[in-house]
Amino acid sequence: MSSANHVYPVIWQSESPDEALNGRVLLIDQTRLPKEYAMVDIHRYEDMAWAIETMIVRGAPAIGVAAAYGMYLGAREIKTRDRTEFLTQLEQVAQRLRATRPTAVNLFWAIDRMLKTAHQTLGPVDYLKQILLETAQNINAEDLKTCRQIGNHGLQVLPSSPQKLRILTHCNAGALATAGYGTALGVVRSAWLGDRLERVYADETRPRLQGAKLTAWECVQEGIPVTVITDNMAAHCMQRGMIDVVVVGADRIAANGDTANKIGTYSVALIARAHNIPFFVAAPLSTIDFAIADGSQIPIEERHSSEIYQVGETMLCPSGVEFYNPAFDVTPANLITAIITEYGAVAPADLKAKLASRQMV
Ligand code: MRU
Predict the structure, then answer these.
(1) Is the pTM of this model over 0.70?
(2) Is position 251 annotated as part of the catalytic site?
(3) I need a labelling partner for 97 at 20 to 30 A (CA). Which of 52, 58, 235, 358 fits?
């Protein structure tokens, strides 16, 4: 792990030729970063569901990859050799994994792709299991490739300026949130490698601090200059002319381009518009939900109030108050300059016409 360019949050590992029996998934425990770099071994699908719920693995594409492996682990645990019974039990595995987190559509996309593969594959149950492992590995490898393409396309649409760019990002849409390399941070990474980046400004991203902990950690690993600011400082930085462009990731994009991403993204889009600063969303096609017409239909996860009232062992608030803790918000399409996908940058209004037919599941 010499560079965040080589950080892979979800790794399939097998020490025996009999992968079906002995393989396991290694997850970077993102709840411990940046203090500690530790791996968690996952052998069973229930443990994968738990890892997604507790955010050991998080970030929309990484959740999709983890869920795909979770489907395989679940398939491996099914004892029957009867195909119909196997598919019934696999649906139960899918139900459990679907119930982990509601907003990031990559989760559902990956589970559906695994189920579709199982239904379409002919042959004995053992063969189905082998194909499911291969499919999960493909989803993983494809996402890595996709992120690099997003990075390259992003580089083409960043504002042209003789000066190097100062990019603001929110949450963590980096290697840790994907199969590797990242979406928004993939664009940042490509800008850095292309000598077009002066500095990243990372919103700390209350309440879980993915910006302060994870984005900052990735940048430090790679020597990318990074300044962490608290979320309420972004407008001030824009007003002072410190930000040239905003690039964020996405958890689910509706057909009209409305984009759900980490809570606070909408405020960043509004202040970027007020300061005439381009606001890009970087996301793979698997994050676009063409079944949803607009952002009002995107389910927004609400997480436990302890994420707000507690930091470590310290209680921040008096008892007796109430809390509201939505994990995501929806940025309306009209605030988004373009959505950078593996097929290039697309205006939100053109999303359906240009990309719907390319989606795989
Ligand atoms: O709650 P999280 O940490 O899973 O939320 C992550 C985000 O909101 C990311 O910005 C998004 O998933 C894009 S990751 C490439």
Answers:
(1) yes
(2) yes
(3) 358
| Cβ atoms 200, 174 nearer than 8 A | no
For residue 261, give the ligand 1 atom closest to its CA: 8
Q: pLDDT tens digits for 162-213? A: 899 999 999 999 999 999 999 999 999 999 999 999 999 999 999 999 999 9
Mutating to test ligand 1, I would choose from 58, 247, 280, 325 the residue with most ligand atoms within 8 A of its C-beta, which is: 58
In tens, the pLDDT along 228-242 reads 999 999 999 999 999
Cβ neighbours, 10 Å, residue 290:
16
Q: Which of 239, 272, 315 is nearest to 168 (CA)?
A: 272
Residue-range domains of the chain with CATH: 4-146 (1.20.120.420), 157-358 (3.40.50.10470)
Centre of ligand 1 to C-alpha 176, Å, is 10
The catalytic residue among 251, 258, 289, 329 is 251
The number of angstroms, rounded, from the C-alpha of 292 to the middle of its chain's C-alpha atoms is 19
Q: What is the Å distance from ligand 1's center to 156 Cα? A: 24
- Cα–Cα distance measured from residue 179 to residue 59, given in angstroms and rounded to the nearest whole number: 10
Q: Kindly report, residue by residue over 270-324, the tens digit of the pLDDT.
A: 999 999 999 999 999 999 999 999 999 999 999 999 999 998 889 999 999 999 9
pLDDT in tens, 84-122: 999 999 999 999 999 999 999 999 999 999 999 999 999
Distance (Å) from CA 263 to ligand 1 centroid = 10
Ligand 1 neighbours by CB, cut-off 6 Å = 58-61, 104, 171, 173, 177-178, 183, 210, 249-251, 261-262, 327
